[in-house]
C-alpha cells in the first residue's frame, strides 16, 4: 500500500503504516498541529491486526477530535473486534473501507502492491492476498465485462479461479451487461517460474529497478549527475537530496526506451538527441510570423523532451558505470552459465569467492537459488556446503532465511528425479544463442539470451496453445486448467478481421519489469494478433523478492 | 354533418367525478360509528377498532383489518392499553398508539411485530392527540401530550424523539393542528383560537395566513395536502381558506355557510392541477370547495371517513368505497359533451369505423388536417389510464391503436406500457385483491413497492405473475417474491423440515440472486435450526452463511464455510470466536482438521501469542518448527546464558526432527558464542554476535592470529575462504610483511592473482609486483595489467597466443606511448587468428 499523506484543506487523510510507533508519532504530530481537523486513518487490516496496540492507544488519548477509520483494502471484522476489545471502537465517528485491490500503474499495468503476497502464499499458507486478487478481478469484470476464458497454472492460480467462479455464482442475477473487453485471463503462479526473477534484468527499466529500486513508480537517484550546471556559478553546490523521478509512459521518451535492452538504449538516446536538436534548429528556418508562432507553440513540448533526454542520459550513464564493471560482467556470466546448464551440479568457484569476499548476502542468495532452480535442486553435499559457508560468513541467524528459501522451493536438495530443467529449456526455447539486443525478434532480448519462462508460457498459450506443451506443463509445479465463463447472449464479441485479442495476464506472487517488457514486446509484434494487459500482486525484482522471504530475528526485537 | 362545438358556458366549477370502487365486502352492524378507523393511502388496508373506549376487561375491543374492498385480513381482541390512534406505515404496518405513549406495530395480517415508546415525558403526561404522517424519511408519529407539548419522531424505523418548544398562551388543547414537512424537516402547525404557530426543532413562530377573512375568531380545522405543499383552514365562521403551506400565498377562500365543526377535511387535488379544491365532511354532508364561491354538495347516507390520496380523496362508508377526484384533463377533453378535442374525434372515428361507416374517414380527415393525430392518440392513451372500467379502457385503447395506424414513426412505448400498466392495475383492483390504485398513484408508487405490498398480503402467485409480465429484472422481481414466500414458508410449523427444504429448493432453484441466508435466518428465528442449516446449504455466498452458523453454534460448519469463501478475514473471525467458545484442546483439534485455518491462526500467534504457537507445534510434534521457534527466541534474549539455553533446546528439537544439519549448525553457533565470550573476557574485544567470518576478521585485525587459526581449524573453514579472509585483513592492516610470510607459508589455494589485486586495491604497487610472477599462466595477463605493466602483459599474451587476451591488452594500450608494443601485438594477433 502506498504510504501517502493526502491533505485536503481541513480534512486529513493519513495512511497509517502500522509499523506502529514510528508513524503513529508522525500522525499524532499532525493531529495536534492541525486545529479542528478531521483525522482519517487508513489502515491496512493485516498490518493492523498484528501490531495494533500503539496505534490505538494514542488515538484514544486524542479524544476530543473527530476520528474516522478507513480500512484498506477492505473492512476487517478482525480489526473491528480488536478495536472493540480495546474499547475504542466507539471513538470513531465513521468506520468505513477504502477498497483498493488493483491499482492502475500504467496504461497496461495493474498492481495490487501487496508486498508480502509471495511470502504469505507460499511460505505462510495465508491466502489473503489471493482473496483480494479474486475480488479485484471481480471488480474488473464488473467494469469491463465477464472474461469468457480463464487459463491458469499453479496452486494459487487454481485457488483464485475457484474463488472467482464462486463469487460469480454469488453475484448471479446482478451482472452488468457489458461487452467483454478481455478475451482471456491467464493466471500464473510465481512458483511456476522461480527462475526469471532471480536473473538480472537487462532492459532499461529493469536495470533501473535492479540498481536503484523503483517504488510506487518513483526512483531515487544519486544527485551528483543531476546537478544543474548554471553558468557563472560553476556548480559549487552539489545537491545532497536524492533526485526523485517519476517513471511511466506519460513521458514519451521513457515509454520508448524503457523496454529496450540496455545495450540498445545508447543508440536510441543519441538518435533522440539528434531529433531534438534538429527541432531546435528549425527556428532558423522560421521566417514568417506564423512560422515563428508555430515554433514557439511547440517550445514547451520540446523543452520537456530535452529535459527528459538529459535525465535519461544521466541515468544511462549511471547504469553504464555499473554494467561495464568487471563484477557485473562476472556475475552475469555465471548467471548465464547456470541458465544454459553449465556446471550447475558443482560448487561454483565464483559464488565461493563472492562469499569469501563477503559480497552482499542477497546477491549470494540469488545466485545459489538460481543454481538450485536450474539444476532442479542441488546435491545434498553442495547444498550443505553453500549453507555452511553462508552461515559462517553472514551469521547463524540466517538459518531461518535459508529454511524459508527451502520451503518455497528456491533451494532444495536434489531428489531422485532427474533434472528436467534442460528439457523445459529446450522445449520452450528458454535460451536463444543469438539474441538480438538492438532489433529484437524474440522475447529473450530482455535477459540477453534467456527468454522468461512465464512469458514463454503466455506466448505459447496464445499460439499454438498449451496442448502442444502438455509434457512440459506437467513438469512444472501445480495444476494447469481452463475454465469458461458464460457470457450473456448478445454480448459475445464479434471480432473484426485483424482485430487483436486481449489477454489479461495476472502474476500471482509478483512480476518483474523485464517480464512486462517481454509481454509488451509480444503485444507490439506485428503478427502477434494479441494484446497483453498485465496485472500482478506486486512489481518485484530478485532483490526485493528474496528480501521479502528473509527472516531476520533481530528486527523483531521489542 | 357539421361538427360545431356548442357554446361552452362559463366554467362554473371544477369538474369532479365520483367513482364507485367497491361495494364493501364486510358486514358491519353499526357501520363505522364508534370505531377508530385508519385506512392506508395508495389503496392500502383499513383497520377498525370497535369500542375502543370500553375499559372493562369483559368486553375487550376488537381490532379488525380489512382490504380496501372490505375483505377480512385479520381480526383479534385488543388486549393491551387504551388506543388513541391507529395508523399505517409506508410499508403497510399498523401502528397503534396507546394512551401511555407506547406504539405497537402489527403487520397487515395481524401479526405482532414490535413496540416502542415515545419517551418518558409522553408516558407520564399521557397522550392527548396523535397524528401519524408520512415523509420522505418514512413514517412518523407526532404526539400532543397532556402537558400540551408536542413530541415527534420522524421515522419510526430509526427513532429519534424530538420534543418541540412550548406554544405560548396555550391553556387547553389547541383547536386544531397538523404536521408539515418543509425544508427537510418535520414541523407542527398549531392553531390556538385565531392564532397560528409553526413549531420546529428550535422555535415556535407565530404566523398569519395572508388574507384570512377577519370575521373568524378561531381556526377549527386544518388539513395539509398529500404533497405538503398546500394548506386548508376552516374557521368558526364557516370559511375555508386555501393557500400554500408556507403561508405565503392565498389561493382562494370560500364560505361554506356551515358553522358547526366538521368531522374531517381533506385536499382533493390532482398533481399539477391549477385549481385548489378541498373536501369538508360533516355528518351526512360532504362539501367540495374550490376556486369560486359556489360549492358542490354531496349527501352522505352513512358515517364515512375520508382518505386523502395523491390525486383525490377516497370516501369509505359502512357499505361503499368511492373515489372522488377532479376529472383528468384528457378524460374531460374526450368525454365532454360535443367535444371537438382531437381525442374525442378519434374516439368518434373509431366508433364509426367499427360500424363500417365512411364517416370514420371524415373524422380522421378532420384531425389530420389540423395535424393533431398524434395528439389524439396520446389523449386516448392517457385517458385510458385514468379510466377504471376495463370496457372504457379498451374502447379508448382501441381508438388509440386505430389512430396509430395512420401515423408513421409514432413511438410505441407509451401505448405499450399503458396497456401493460392497465393490465396490472386491473388485476390488483380486483375485488379479491382490493388495491384500488389509480394510474397516477401507481406511477408514483413504482412497481417495486406494489410487489412488496402484494407480498405483504401473501399474494405470491399474483406478484410473480406481475413481475414476469412486466419483465422486472429477476433479482428485483421474481427472486425477491420467492424469497418472501420462502421466509413465510419456513414459519409453517406443521410441515416437516425435509418437506419445506425440498419445496423451497425446488421453487427457488432457477431463480437468480436468491439470498438463502435470509430465509435460513427466518427459519432459525422461528426455532428451526435444522431447517436453517439445510437451507444454508443452498446459499452460494459462503460469507453470508458464517454469521448465522455461528449464531446457531454450528462452529465446525461455520469454519469450513468460511474457508470455502476464501475470505481470510472471515476465517479469522470464526477462529477467534472458536478460541473463546471452546476449551483449548477442542479448539486445537478443530484447527487440526482445517489446515487453512490452522496456518492462519499460526500467523496470528506468531505476532500475538508466541506461547500458543509453541503449544500448537508441540501438539503436532513439529520439532523442526519448535527448533526454529527457539532459535528465533534466542535472538530476543539479551543474556548469553539464556540465549545458549534456548539454542540448546533448539538443538534438541532439531535432533528430534532428524535435521542433522540444523542441529550441528546450531551447536556450532553455541560453540562460537562461548568462544566469543571467553575471548571477550580475556582480551576485551567486542565479539559476541559477530558471524564466524567477522570474528576471525576482527581477531586478525587486532593481531590475534593464533585464535583466528584456532577458529579456522575448529570450525573447519575451507582453506580458500580463510586465505581470502586473511589476505584481506592483512592488507587492510597494511601488514605487508606478515602478508608476504603468509603468501609463502604454503601454496595459495586461491592462487596469487587475488594477492596482486588486493595490494593494488590498497594502492601498493610495490607489494603487488611481488606476486605477479607467482600467478598462473592463465591469469598472468590480468596480473600484469593490474600492476600496470603493459609490456609484461603483452609478453604474457603473445606467449599464450590467445587472441582475446591480446585484444584486451591492445584495448588498454594508448596509441601515443605504446606504439611499438601495439605493432607487436597486432602482428601476434594476426598469427593467432590464422591458427
From TrEMBL, chain A:
PANTHER family named among the record's database cross-references: VESICLE PROTEIN SORTING-ASSOCIATED (PTHR11679)
InterPro entries linked to this entry: Sec-1-like_dom1 (IPR043154), Sec-1-like_dom3a (IPR043127), Sec1-like (IPR001619), Sec1-like_dom2 (IPR027482), Sec1-like_sf (IPR036045), VPS33_dom3b (IPR043155)
Keywords linked to the UniProt accession: Cytoplasmic vesicle, Endosome, Lysosome, Membrane, Protein transport, Signal, Transport
Signal sequence residues: 1-20
Record's function text: Plays a role in vesicle-mediated protein trafficking to lysosomal compartments including the endocytic membrane transport and autophagic pathways. Believed to act as a core component of the putative HOPS and CORVET endosomal tethering complexes which are proposed to be involved in the Rab5-to-Rab7 endosome conversion probably implicating MON1A/B, and via binding SNAREs and SNARE complexes to mediate tethering and docking events during SNARE-mediated membrane fusion.
GO cellular component terms, A-Z: autophagosome; clathrin-coated vesicle; early endosome; late endosome membrane; lysosomal membrane
Residues forming coiled coils: none
Gene Ontology BP term (one): vesicle-mediated transport
Family annotation (Pfam families): Sec1
Family according to the record: Belongs to the STXBP/unc-18/SEC1 family.
Localization in the cell: Cytoplasmic vesicle, Autophagosome; Cytoplasmic vesicle, Clathrin-coated vesicle; Early endosome; Late endosome membrane
Protein name: Vacuolar protein sorting-associated protein 33A
Membrane protein topology class: Peripheral membrane protein
TrEMBL record, chain B:
Source species, domain of life: Eukaryota
Pfam annotation, one family: Vps16_C
GO biological-process terms attached to the record: endosomal transport; intracellular protein transport; vacuole fusion, non-autophagic
GO cellular component, one term: CORVET complex
Domain Vps16 N-terminal: 17-416
InterPro entries with a match to the protein in the record: VPS16 (IPR016534), Vps16_C (IPR006925), Vps16_C_sf (IPR038132), Vps16_N (IPR006926), WD40_repeat_dom_sf (IPR036322)
Topology class, membrane: Peripheral membrane protein
Location in or out of the cell: Late endosome membrane; Lysosome membrane
Keyword Ribonucleoprotein: no
Coiled-coil positions: none
GO molecular function, one term: actin binding
Record keywords: Endosome, Lysosome, Membrane, Protein transport, Transport
Major subcellular location class: membrane
Start and end residues of each Vps16 C-terminal domain: 515-829
PANTHER family linked to this entry: VACUOLAR PROTEIN SORTING VPS16 (PTHR12811), VACUOLAR PROTEIN SORTING-ASSOCIATED PROTEIN 16 HOMOLOG (PTHR12811:SF0)
Assembly and binders: Core component of at least two putative endosomal tethering complexes, the homotypic fusion and vacuole protein sorting (HOPS) complex and the class C core vacuole/endosome tethering (CORVET) complex. Their common core is composed of the class C Vps proteins VPS11, VPS16, VPS18 and VPS33A, which in HOPS further associates with VPS39 and VPS41 and in CORVET with VPS8 and TGFBRAP1. Interacts with RAB5C. Interacts with STX17, MON1B. Associates with adapter protein complex 3 (AP-3) and clathrin:AP-3 complexes.
Function recorded in the entry: Plays a role in vesicle-mediated protein trafficking to lysosomal compartments including the endocytic membrane transport and autophagic pathways. Believed to act as a core component of the putative HOPS and CORVET endosomal tethering complexes.
Family membership noted in the UniProt record: Belongs to the VPS16 family.
Stated name of the protein: Vacuolar protein sorting-associated protein 16 homolog
Organism: Sinocyclocheilus grahami (Dianchi golden-line fish)
Gene that specifies this protein: LOC107581413
Amino acid at each position: 500500500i502506498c504510504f501517502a499523506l493526502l491533505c485536503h484543506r481541513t480534512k486529513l487523510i493519513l495512511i497509517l503504516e502500522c509499523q506502529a510507533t514510528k508513524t503513529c508519532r508522525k500522525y499524532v504530530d499532525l493531529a495536534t498541529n492541525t486545529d479542528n481537523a478531521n483525522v482519517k486513518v487508513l489502515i491496512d487490516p493485516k498490518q493492523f491486526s498484528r501490531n495494533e496496540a500503539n496505534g490505538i492507544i494514542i488515538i484514544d488519548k486524542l479524544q476530543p477530535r473527530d476520528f474516522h477509520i478507513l480500512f484498506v483494502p477492505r473492512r476487517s471484522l478482525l480489526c473491528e473486534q480488536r478495536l472493540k476489545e480495546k474499547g475504542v471502537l466507539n471513538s470513531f465517528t465513521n468506520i468505513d473501507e477504502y477498497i483498493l485491490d488493483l491499482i492502475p500503474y500504467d496504461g497496461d499495468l495493474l498492481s495490487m502492491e501487496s508486498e508480502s503476497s509471495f511470502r504469505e502464499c507460499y511460505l505462510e499458507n495465508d491466502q489473503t492476498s489471493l482473496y483480494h486478487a479474486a475480488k479485484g478481478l471481480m471488480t474488473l469484470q464488473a467494469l469491463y465485462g465477464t472474461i469468457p476464458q480463464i487459463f491458469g497454472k499453479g496452486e494459487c492460480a487454481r485457488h483464485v479461479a475457484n474463488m472467482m467462479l464462486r463469487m460469480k455464482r454469488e453475484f448471479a442475477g446482478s451482472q452488468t451487461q457489458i461487452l467483454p473487453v478481455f478475451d482471456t485471463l491467464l493466471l500464473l503462479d510465481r512458483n511456476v517460474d522461480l527462475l526469471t526473477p532471480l536473473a538480472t534484468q537487462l532492459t532499461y527499466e529493469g536495470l533501473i529497478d535492479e540498481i536503484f529500486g523503483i517504488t510506487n513508480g518513483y526512483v531515487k537517484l544519486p544527485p551528483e549527475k543531476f546537478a544543474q550546471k548554471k553558468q557563472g556559478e560553476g556548480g559549487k553546490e552539489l545537491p545532497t537530496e536524492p533526485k526523485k523521478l517519476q517513471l511511466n509512459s506519460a513521458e514519451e521518451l521513457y515509454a520508448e526506451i524503457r523496454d529496450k535492452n540496455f545495450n540498445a538504449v545508447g543508440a536510441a538516446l543519441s538518435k533522440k538527441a539528434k531529433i531534438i536538436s534538429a527541432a531546435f534548429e528549425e527556428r532558423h528556418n522560421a521566417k514568417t510570423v506564423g512560422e515563428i508562432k508555430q515554433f514557439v507553440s511547440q517550445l514547451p513540448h520540446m523543452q520537456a523532451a530535452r529535459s527528459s533526454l538529459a535525465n535519461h542520459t544521466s541515468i544511462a550513464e549511471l547504469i553504464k558505470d555499473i554494467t561495464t564493471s568487471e563484477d557485473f560482467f562476472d556475475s552475469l556470466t555465471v548467471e548465464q552459465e547456470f541458465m544454459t546448464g553449465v556446471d550447475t551440479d558443482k560448487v561454483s568457484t565464483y559464488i565461493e569467492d563472492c562469499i569469501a569476499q563477503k559480497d552482499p548476502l542477497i546477491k549470494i542468495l540469488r545466485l545459489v537459488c538460481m543454481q538450485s532452480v536450474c539444476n532442479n535442486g542441488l546435491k545434498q553435499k553442495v547444498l550443505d556446503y553453500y549453507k555452511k559457508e553462508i552461515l559462517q560468513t553472514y551469521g547463524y541467524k540466517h538459518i531461518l532465511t535459508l529454511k524459508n528459501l527451502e520451503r518455497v522451493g528456491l533451494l532444495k536438495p536434489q531428489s531422485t528425479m532427474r533434472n528436467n530443467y534442460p528439457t523445459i529449456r529446450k522445449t520452450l526455447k528458454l535460451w536463444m544463442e543469438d539474441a538480438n539486443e538492438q532489433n529484437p525478434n524474440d522475447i529473450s532480448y530482455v535477459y540477453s539470451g534467456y527468454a522468461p519462462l512465464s512469458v514463454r508460457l503466455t506466448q505459447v498459450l496464445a499460439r499454438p496453445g498449451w496442448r502442444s506443451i502438455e509434457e512440459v506443463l506437467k513438469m512444472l509445479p501445480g495444476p494447469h486448467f481452463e475454465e469458461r465463463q458464460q457470457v450473456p447472449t448478445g454480448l459475445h464479441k464479434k471480432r473484426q478481421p485483424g482485430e487483436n485479442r486481449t489477454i489479461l495476464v495476472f502474476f500471482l506472487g509478483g512480476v518483474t519489469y523485464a517480464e512486462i517488457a517481454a509481454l509488451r514486446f509480444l503485444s507490439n509484434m506485428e503478427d502477434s494478433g494479441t494484446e497483453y494487459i498485465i496485472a500482478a500482486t506486486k512489481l518485484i525484482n530478485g532483490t526485493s523478492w528474496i528480501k521479502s522471504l528473509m527472516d531476520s530475528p533481530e528486527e523483531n526485537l521489542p | 354533418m357539421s361538427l360545431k362545438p356548442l357554446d361552452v358556458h362559463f366554467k362554473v366549477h371544477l369538474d369532479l367525478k365520483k367513482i364507485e370502487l367497491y361495494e364493501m365486502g364486510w358486514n358491519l352492524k353499526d357501520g363505522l360509528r364508534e370505531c377508530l378507523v385508519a385506512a392506508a393511502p395508495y389503496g392500502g388496508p383499513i383497520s377498525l377498532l370497535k369500542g375502543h373506549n370500553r375499559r372493562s376487561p369483559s368486553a375487550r375491543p376488537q381490532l379488525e383489518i380489512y382490504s380496501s374492498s372490505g375483505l377480512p385480513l385479520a381480526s383479534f381482541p385488543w388486549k393491551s392499553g387504551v388506543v388513541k390512534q391507529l395508523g399505517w406505515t409506508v410499508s403497510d404496518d399498523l401502528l397503534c398508539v396507546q394512551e401511555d405513549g407506547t406504539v405497537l406495530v402489527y403487520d397487515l395480517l395481524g401479526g405482532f411485530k414490535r413496540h416502542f415508546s415515545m419517551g418518558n415525558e409522553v408516558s407520564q403526561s399521557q397522550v392527548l392527540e396523535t397524528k401519524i404522517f408520512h415523509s420522505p424519511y418514512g413514517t412518523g408519529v407526532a404526539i400532543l401530550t397532556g402537558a400540551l407539548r408536542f413530541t415527534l419522531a420522524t421515522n419510526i424505523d430509526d427513532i429519534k424523539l424530538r420534543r418541540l418548544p412550548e406554544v405560548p398562551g396555550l391553556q387547553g388543547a389547541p383547536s386544531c393542528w397538523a404536521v408539515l414537512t418543509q425544508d427537510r424537516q418535520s414541523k407542527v402547525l398549531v392553531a390556538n383560537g385565531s392564532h397560528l404557530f409553526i413549531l420546529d426543532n428550535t422555535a415556535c413562530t407565530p404566523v398569519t395566513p395572508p388574507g384570512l377573512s377577519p370575521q373568524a375568531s378561531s381556526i377549527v380545522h386544518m388539513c395539509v395536502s398529500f404533497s405538503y405543499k398546500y394548506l386548508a383552514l376552516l374557521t368558526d365562521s364557516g370559511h375555508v381558506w386555501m393557500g400554500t403551506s408556507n403561508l405565503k400565498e392565498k389561493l382562494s377562500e370560500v364560505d361554506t355557510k356551515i358553522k358547526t365543526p366538521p368531522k374531517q377535511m381533506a385536499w382533493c387535488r390532482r398533481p399539477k392541477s391549477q385549481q385548489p379544491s378541498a373536501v369538508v365532511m360533516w355528518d351526512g354532508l360532504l362539501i367540495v370547495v374550490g376556486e369560486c364561491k359556489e360549492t358542490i354538495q354531496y349527501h352522505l347516507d352513512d358515517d364515512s371517513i375520508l382518505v386523502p390520496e395523491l390525486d383525490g380523496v377516497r370516501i369509505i362508508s359502512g357499505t361503499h368505497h368511492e373515489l372522488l377526484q377532479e376529472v383528468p384533463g384528457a378524460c374531460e377533453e374526450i368525454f365532454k359533451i360535443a367535444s371537438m378535442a382531437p381525442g374525442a374525434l378519434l374516439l368518434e372515428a373509431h366508433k364509426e369505423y367499427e360500424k363500417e361507416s365512411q364517416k370514420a374517414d371524415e373524422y380522421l380527415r378532420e384531425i389530420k388536417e389540423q395535424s393533431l393525430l398524434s395528439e389524439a392518440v396520446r389523449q386516448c392513451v392517457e385517458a385510458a389510464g385514468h379510466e377504471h372500467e376495463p370496457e372504457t379502457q379498451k374502447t379508448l385503447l382501441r381508438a388509440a391503436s386505430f389512430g396509430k395506424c395512420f401515423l408513421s414513426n409514432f413511438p410505441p412505448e407509451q401505448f405499450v406500457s399503458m396497456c401493460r400498466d392497465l393490465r396490472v392495475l386491473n388485476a390488483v383492483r380486483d375485488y379479491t385483491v382490493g388495491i384500488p390504485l389509480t394510474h397516477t398513484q401507481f406511477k408514483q408508487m413504482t412497481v417495486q413497492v406494489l410487489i412488496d405490498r402484494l407480498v405483504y398480503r401473501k399474494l405470491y402467485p399474483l406478484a410473480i405473475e406481475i413481475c414476469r409480465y412486466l419483465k422486472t429484472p429477476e433479482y428485483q422481481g421474481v427472486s425477491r417474491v420467492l424469497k418472501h414466500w420462502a421466509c413465510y414458508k419456513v414459519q409453517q410449523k406443521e410441515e416437516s423440515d425435509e418437506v419445506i427444504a425440498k419445496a423451497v429448493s425446488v421453487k427457488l432453484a432457477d431463480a437468480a440472486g436468491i439470498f438463502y441466508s435470509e430465509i435460513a435466518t427466518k427459519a432459525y428465528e422461528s426455532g428451526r435450526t435444522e431447517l436453517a442449516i439445510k437451507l444454508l446449504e443452498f446459499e452460494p455466498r459462503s460469507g453470508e452463511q458464517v454469521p448465522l452458523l455461528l449464531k446457531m453454534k454450528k462452529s465446525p460448519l461455520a469454519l469450513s464455510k468460511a474457508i470455502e469463501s476464501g475470505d481470510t478475514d472471515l476465517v479469522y473471525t470464526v477462529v477467534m470466536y472458536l478460541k473463546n467458545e471452546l476449551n483449548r484442546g477442542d479448539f486445537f483439534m478443530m484447527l487440526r482438521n482445517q489446515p487453512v485455518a490452522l496456518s492462519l491462526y499460526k500467523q496470528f500467534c506468531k505476532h500475538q501469542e508466541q506461547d500458543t504457537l509453541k503449544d500448537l507445534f508441540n501438539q503436532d510434534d513439529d520439532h523442526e518448527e519448535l527448533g526454529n521457534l527457539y532459535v528465533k527466541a534466542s535472538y530476543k534474549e539479551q543474556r548469553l546464558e539464556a540465549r545458549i539455553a534456548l539454542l540448546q533446546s533448539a538443538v534438541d528439537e532439531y535432533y528430534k526432527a532428524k535435521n542433522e544439519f540444523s542441529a550441528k549448525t546450531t551447536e556450532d553457533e553455541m560453540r562460537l558464542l562461548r568462544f566469543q565470550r571467553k575471548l571477550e573476557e580475556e582480551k576485551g574485544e567486542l565479539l559476541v554476535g559477530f558471524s564466524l567470518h567477522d570474528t576471525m576478521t576482527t581477531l586478525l585485525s587486532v593481531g590475534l592470529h593464533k585464535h583466528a587459526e584456532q577458529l579456522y581449524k575448529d570450525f573447519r573453514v575451507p582453506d580458500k575462504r580463510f586465505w581470502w579472509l586473511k589476505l584481506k585483513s592483512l592488507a587492510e592492516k597494511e601488514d605487508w610483511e606478515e602478508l608476504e610470510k603468509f603468501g609463502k607459508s604454503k601454496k595459495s589455494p586461491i592462487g596469487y592473482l587475488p594477492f596482486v589485486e588486493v595490494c593494488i586495491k590498497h594502492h601498493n604497487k610495490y607489494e603487488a609486483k611481488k606476486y605477479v610472477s607467482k600467478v598462473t599462466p592463465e591469469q598472468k595477463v590480468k596480473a600484469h595489467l593490474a600492476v600496470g605493466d603493459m609490456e609484461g602483459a603483452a609478453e604474457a599474451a603473445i606467449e599464450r597466443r590467445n587472441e582475446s587476451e591480446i585484444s584486451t591488452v591492445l584495448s588498454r594500450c594508448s596509441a601515443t606511448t605504446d606504439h611499438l608494443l601495439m605493432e607487436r601485438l597486432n602482428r601476434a594477433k594476426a598469427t593467432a587468428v590464422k591458427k
